[in-house]
Amino acid sequence: MENGERLFEVEDLRVEYRTPGGKPVKAVRGVSFTLSAGETLGIVGESGSGKSTIAKTLMLLQPAAGGAVHFRGQDIFSLSAAARRAYRNEVQMVFQDAVGSLNPRMTVRQTLDEICARARDGRPARQPEELLDLVGLSRAVFDQYPRELSGGQCQRVSIARALAVDPRVLVADEPVSALDVSVQARILNLLRDLRRGLGLSVLLIAHDLAVVRNVCDRVCVMHHGLFEDTGPAEDVFARPKSEYTKSLLAAVPDVARALAARAAGA
């Protein structure tokens, strides 16, 4: 796969849903972006801005109300059942709640064995030992259950599981927001190393600008279902165009600045 190959092309994506009371909500009101091979794109915004809805829509977990999403030239909303299975091998998701996303009744070994037993394009998936090496975990965790692991270890297992089918893209939905600051930096560095080592593309969803500053090539700042600022990460940080982005930058707490510095220097 050539670096720079256009993987995702999203045009005027709109997503709507109804609240339990039946009230319609326009979660995403028309956004467009691309994601290329080997690139990390950050979508940043406050809770309720629509960023996680984009992630769920790309994973075919949420229907779109309009617009188009193409992956390597194919319309993902019109894929056949077989093509959807192949697409989900190419695009894997890492969830915010790492502990909750793992089966509490399965050990790490059982979790990885289950996914590694699947075949991708007729070829074996990666093996559990290789996956642990990729995410920096020792063999000692193999026989442990999620409740026996730290939050950071659970997130590494979750990432390992996503890598088992050798995807092209990781959609990481708030992967560090539930972790301590020092652990956040390690997970962000892991994602950066995996991108470089495996040639992955990463769509990183976050609510904190400091989280994405030193990890992402480009950034989209989202507010009320729309993009307020888009562009190379350093340009968005140095020359924000919207008042909303300026307010987010002004509100970055010292602890988040420390995280950004740690991630940059580690």
Quick take:
With 266 residues, the protein is of the alpha/beta class. Helices cover 38% and strands 27% of the residues.
Q: What labels describe this entry?
A:
266 residues; alpha/beta; six-stranded mixed β-sheet; 11 helices
Which architecture per CATH? 3-Layer(aba) Sandwich
* CATH fold-level label: Rossmann fold
Using the coordinates above, name the CATH class.
Alpha Beta
What radius of gyration results from the CA coordinates? 18 Å
Instruction: Work out the strand percent.
Output: 25-35%
Unreliable stretches, pLDDT < 50, 5 or more residues?
Answer: 254-260
**Main beta-sheet strand count, sense and barrel state:** 6 strands, mixed
What's the total count of β strands? Answer: 12
Characterization of this structure:
With 266 residues, the protein is α/β, with parallel strands linked by helices. It has one domain (6-265): 3-Layer(aba) Sandwich (Rossmann fold), CATH 3.40.50.300. Helices cover 38% and strands 27% of the residues. The chain has helices at residues 51-58, 81-90, 98-101, 108-116, 128-135, 151-163, 181-198, 209-213, 233-238, 243-250, 254-265, and strands spanning 6-18, 24-36, 40-44, 66-71, 74-75, 91-94, 119-120, 123-124, 169-173, 201-206, 218-223, 226-232. The strands form three sheets. A six-stranded mixed beta sheet has the order 6-9-10-3-11-12, sandwiched between helices. Strands 2-1-4-5 form a four-stranded antiparallel beta sheet, covered by helices on one side.
